[in-house]
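Why do we care about 3D structure at all? Because function follows from shape, and shape follows, mostly, from sequence. That is the central idea of this module. The next example makes it concrete: a single protein chain, its amino acid sequence, and then its structure expressed as tokens.
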Amino acid sequence: MAVIFKQKSILPGFGLALGFTMFYLSLIVLIPLSATFWKTSTLTWHQFWHVVASPRAMASYRLSFGASLIGAFINLFFGVLVAWVLVRYSFPLKRLFDSLIDLPFALPTAVAGIALTTVYAPNGWLGRPLESIGVHAAYTRLGVTIALTFIGLPFVVRTVQPVLGDLDKELEEAAASLGAGRWQTFTRVLLPAILPAAITGFTMAFARAVGEYGSVIFIAGNMPMRTEITPLLIITRLQEYDYAGATAIAVAMLVVSFVLLLAINLLQRWSSGRRGRESSQESAFLGATLKPVLGRGEGQ
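And the structure:
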């Protein structure tokens, strides 16, 4: 029995396109990752565990993943809010504010780090009032979280914004006409529609924050066991010519990131499937409700 690996398409060149795609992915993704695992395999299991589970490495994991998750959750809330304001309201200089959302994309990470450090330093514009109330931003874990939040905001806004733009306001008006309050309209009508996009933006913001380096090292202070992120620890290992140790930490970080991203993607798929089932149930309920009415109309 012949096995068919492709579907018929109006576009020719499937084999060539597939071959180029596999070659490109292997060259850019698979080969570098394989080299990382191969270099790590030169260590024994005891040596590998000694490197990746050292107190300094564990402290960097907690800071990198913890600050990334906090920053992604902050961006999830405020990113949806910013996208809502940009889509649903008109105000002066709206296009300017909309373009500023992409600033973390275009700004070099080193420039972003220097700018954040200048603003949140003890003598900075925001650092000085924060210091007066006992809040230390720069050179602390709070500074790391601020930097990771800054670079992750565009991901949530740009994934939620087009979805909100495609939603019809008639849906909200219909919900209001049926007696739904603002909170019910948001949770029953708007939230299910934007949730998959919001989770996608959250995932992208988290993934970017985990591997961020340039914008963090300036504001973090880089103190081992306190404000040292994992990418910096990898760079430190490389500067010490401990290539196997650097790749071991990179592999551990890669595995944890993959597991977290897999869990988030499963959550996104579950939410999308649940939304589809709810839409089917709502359509069936609407059809059952309208059928008697349409039947009476045809009878008349």
